[in-house]
Every structure is written in C-alpha cells, then in structure tokens.
Amino acid sequence: MPPMSDGVKPKIVVAEKLSPSAMSRLEAAGEVIVLDACDEAALCAAAADADALVVRTYSQLTARVIEVARKGGRLKVIGRAGVGVDNIDVRAAAKAGIPVVHTPAACTDAVADLTVGLIIAVQRRIVDFDHRIRQGAFASLRGEGKLMPELQHQTLGVIGMGRIGRAVSRRLRDGFGMRVIYHDIREIGYLPFAAASMPSHEAVYAEADVVTMHVPLTRMTRGMINAKALASFKEGSVLINTSRGPVVDAAPLAAALREGRLIGAAIDVFDPEPPPPDHPLLSAPNCVLTPHIASRSKEGLAAMNDVVDDIAAVLAGKPPRYVADPELS
After folding, report:
1. Please, are residues 220 and 243 in contact by the beta-carbon 8 Å criterion?
2. Rounded distance between C-alpha atoms, residue 90 and residue 327, angstroms
3. Which domain holds residue 255?
4. Is the domain of 79 the same as that of 134?
5. pTM higher than 0.90 for the full model?
6. Known catalytic residues?
7. What is the pLDDT of residues 105-141, one digit of tens each?
C-alpha cells in the first residue's frame, strides 16, 4: 500500500479489534490506531482525522459521528466486519460521500447451520430435557409433552430469502424434506430448490410450522414480529430469530409462549445486548437462547475480518467488492 500523496500513511482507526491476520493487513495499509472505547464521544474524536474507521458489532456510527467525519474531510471509508450495517447510519455516510464496506457473504453457512440446530433443539426439547435429567428425572420425561411430527412432514416459513434464508431452506428442503414457503419484499428469481412464494408475511405465519427470520434490521423490519403478527401465527408453531434482536418484540413473544400459542422459540439476538435480568424471554417456557453466536464459526469470523481487504482497496483508490446500499438501511 503506497503512502498518501503528502507522504503520510492513511490513519486507520479500529474501534473493535480484529483478528491478528486482519490487523497485520491493516498495518500494511496504513497507521493503525486501536481505540480503548467505542462510545459516541470516542468515535467522534477518532472520526475527525481518520482516513478509515473499522467497526464490528457494538460501535454505533451515528449521524453525529458521520458529520464530524465530513467536517474533518479525511474519512474515505467505513468498514464493518460483519453482514448487517444497522449500527452505521449508512444514509448519512452516503450523503457525505463515504462508502460503507462490509462482508455480506461471510457467515452464511455458520448462521444457517445454527438455525437448523435451533429448530431441532426447540422441537425435540433438547435443552430442557438435558437440564431436567441432570436434576434426576428420566423415565417420566419420555412420555411427557406433545410429540412433534418429523421435519419432513412440516412446513418451513422463511422471512427474507437472501443468502442466509436460501442456505437454511436448502438444508431443510434437500436434507430433511421440509416443504418451504417464503416471503421477501424483493423479486427473488430462480431458487435451486422447491419453494413457494407467499403474498405476505402473514400468509407465511399462518401456514408455517417453523418461522425463521432472515431479514436485515431496517425501519421496515424493526418490531415486525409484534403482538399482531404473533396472533396470525399457526397455533403450535415455532419462531427462530438469528437476524437482529429488534426484529422481534420480546414481551408479546414471551406471552405467546406462556399461553401455548407458540410451542417454542429460539433466539440468538436480543434487544438490548446483553439482555437485562428482567428480559421477558429469560423466563419464557421452551425458549432456547444463545448469545449472538450464529456467525461465530472459525470460517465465518475469518471471512468477516476480510473486510480489511476492501478498506485497503478504497484507500488505494480501487473499487471494493461489497458496498452497503443506503436504500436498504
């Protein structure tokens, strides 16, 4: 990576540290500064004279941070090591002429694998049975509860048929024989497996035995699984959320689980994170919880860290592979 025209290396500010390999690549591209904190004040101070800002999950690049960067006049690129860019004001960045690069294909398989595992864990009550056997129960559990049909006799409902939605569908259609229905606001085109497009989210909710969420967090998707939506779910169905916490309204979901309208749920993402002690889902029955780890496979993390290659490309005046679309934020 050549130095900038004035002989000074680009200043690359890292708000949340990346892998050793990624950090080495950044150091080859410029002067790397790692922040001790990633709150708004720290990010504003850093954005004033940074040429690149690198974030992961918990740094919030607000319109205020972007405005500081715009006034500073140096910021050329924002990099997000991950799929979603909901922690970045992408519209403000676009108006300021600052591209936001990310890694939308990085963790497709990791998230899809966990989603399948969560569906089986919920329907076969794996976590609950493990806990209760350790407390001394065994024989009584074998006849307890409603028996679920095998997956091959169930319908999978996918909300958002993007990369991850397709990967989940392929696993469950081709591997387990599930019928697949879906809804997406975009035209999906050809799918390499059998699936039926539904006219609305509600049509999916009403027919699916398992509803799995694979949407980005936007103004349209925030709170889309609310009390009204849950009322249209098929009785005895399951909800899986490995997308973003605010997509699901936790209180009505907990109520639906307590009342038995849904027989189970699995949640990998929360609002806020970490969930506070009084979070409604912590006490909800048959609700399997994981700590936002769907993307955290060895390969997934490595691919997310590859955002540094796009950052280096932009600093070198070359086009990046993946630029976030402000119209989808």
Report:
1. no
2. 9
3. 108-289
4. no
5. yes
6. 244, 273, 292
7. 999 999 999 999 999 999 999 999 999 999 999 988 9
